[in-house]
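Worked example

This section walks through a single chain of length 277. The input is the sequence exactly as stored; nothing has been trimmed or padded.
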Amino acid sequence: MRIDSHQHYWRIARGDYGWMTEAVAPIRRDLMPADLAPHLDAAGIAGTILVQAAPTLAETEFLLDLAESDARILGVVGWVDLAAPGATRELERLARRPKFRGIRPMLQDIADTFWILRPEAVAALEAAAALGLRLDALARPRHLPVVSALADRLPALPIVLDHCAKPDIAAGAMRPWARDIEALAERPQVFCKLSGLATEAPPDWTVADLAPYAATVLQAFGADRVMFGSDWPVLELAGTYPQWLAAAAELVDRFAPDGATAVFGGTAARFYGPPAA
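Given that input, the structure is written out below as tokens.
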């Protein structure tokens, strides 16, 4: 099964997408399963992981309701305020929904780089691990040592790094990002999504622009811990679904020549697991 491990749906009138300013006007419209389906059909992708785009429980419920009516959505990564007193109770409640597979605090938007290491957040994540849930880390390069520290504290919590931690490809920045990626990959329960690179690249990006970053990730983690994600529809700010899929396939063929089966499906299936019965 080919899997897209990272995509979004949203309905603007719901009103909790605070990041949707004029800067993202091309994607500030309702985008639902019927809009993505032609891309998935053309790419031969059988299932997706649907990821939160608003820091609210209401949006997580909205995504879970969508998933119940769409067999192509294999799992939902939602949001819970990990620092709230009732975080564990909310995780337990959401975990009763069959397709709820993990949580994603929006670390990139939190000023405190070390927020995820607060005792209350760590305790909630420990509860998440006990419930069989995963953590998507929406991080930037400044968070990489913090994610390593979190992985050391919670070795039973599966973690996947979204968008390779958004390196500054447009500026050609490799250090300390590459060093910190290599250090993070030493933690066996940490995985990485090959996603989001095009939106960090120059507007006229080519595969050559992305190659050093994809090489670093694939060589550090290995194909068995890297999974393809489109980040659609955010992807449309920087390119098309076919363009990114072709680029990702070329990069995997170049830097992990035997890894396509894992990167384009096997890793995501193993990380997120089947929905609970």
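What to look for: The chain has one domain: 3-272.
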